[in-house]
Amino acid sequence: MPRTSTLECPGCPPIRALTFDVLGLVKVTEARSKEGGIPKVVDRWGEPDSSKCILAASIDDRKSGPLLAIARKGGLIEILNPLNGHPCLSISNIIDNGPQPGDDAIVGLHLFKKQNLDLSSRSCTLLACTTKGNASMRSVELTSSHADSTSSVSSRTWNVCASGNILCSQVDGNENYALFGGKGVEVNVWDLEQGTKIWTAKSPPKNSLGLFTPTWFTSATFLSKDDHRKFVAGTNSHQVRLYDISAQRRPVISFDFRETPIKAVAEDQDGYTIYIGNGSGDLASVDMRTGKLLGCFLGKCSGSIRSIARHPELPVIASCGLDSYLRFWDIKTRKLLSAVFLKQPLTNVVFDSNFAEEEVPSSVVDPPTEAQNMNETQESDEEEVQPLKRKKKSSKHSGSKKLKPKKRSKRAQDETVDDSS
User: Fold this and answer.
1) Rounded to the nearest 5°, which phi and psi values hold at 251?
2) For the segment 244-273, what is each residue's pLDDT rounded down to a tens digit?
3) How far apart are CA 237 and CA 218, in angstroms?
4) Do residues 339 and 380 both lie within one domain?
5) Closest by alpha carbon to 347, among 18, 19, 17?
6) Segment 304-313, tens digit of pLDDT
7) Residue 17 CB coordination number (10 Å)
8) Distance between CA atoms of 138 and 58, rounded to whole angstroms?
9) Could you list the residue range(s) of the whole structural domain that residue 376 is in?
10) What's the rounded Cα separation, in Å, for the pair 155 and 225?
């Protein structure tokens, strides 16, 4: 039998996360302080169907009118309300006379947050990229009626690679630039407003044996939301690379992490710390100013990590992967806060940063004082009854003590009779 050790999880702060799995389900997990900070699944949207696997997700968690975009396996993009799961619209990403969705699945999806809201209608802009490098950027008008909400205002498509397969894409914090990379595709950066490529990476030089490292990027993220010039990319050869497009085309910093491919990379708000997860379930934080490993997160994951999300306000990150567990971690102590088993292998996780725990108003708290007084009077009555019972018990004990001297007196009488005889 393998040795196992139990980990004490202190619980999470008030938090809300949405997870997506291979059966096309969206599950809502919430943690409340009233329940000890233990996260629980409070809602599930959709029906299990492997043909509707969710491949990518993006959320715009603004306070008024939040939106959630998900990309499914059949080339369908859906816009949902992240508060109740109500569908807003559905868009097909299939191009006429193009490759089939099975051969050209969506690998990257971004929901732009720069939107102008109106009382009657609102618009949303989506950026989607497929495995074959077909990128599309479209704006869709959302109205109150679901039937008229599929009218596309503008659409623009282009190809980001001539060969190879795209495996990762990311949009910077200002939503003006995007990067793409994959198997056989060097990382390249595009200007979304102009629709032109502004930079392409160059493969590293040969190693000590004179061999080239094959190009195979699996994940990428911008290092800072305010600077699109620096980004971090993970490779299938368990390398983590830092690129600076203003300095050179080759990596500025490159180092190896364990022995399995890098599957997920997420940035921190400080602008220099990143969180990386690999195919064997290792999760760690790295300072990209020096490439120093700050430490690994305590608590071994048993499956490949596929997504890492950083909470925008709380010092918490969430990770999920093929072991079907959603885990919450403290970024300061790197300890496991809590874990939830969600039954299906997970593909992505996002936070709802505007989630606020329900607080009980003072008007509701004040009235129960009368009931508390009644309980206190009942408790005082019970305390007055208990001493009476104790007196009865003490009388019994006192009676039993009196029996012993009686027995002794009888024996004494028998002895006196014998003496007289």
Assistant:
1) -60, 140
2) 999 999 999 999 999 999 999 999 999 999
3) 10
4) no
5) 19
6) 999 999 999 9
7) 24
8) 15
9) 363-420
10) 26
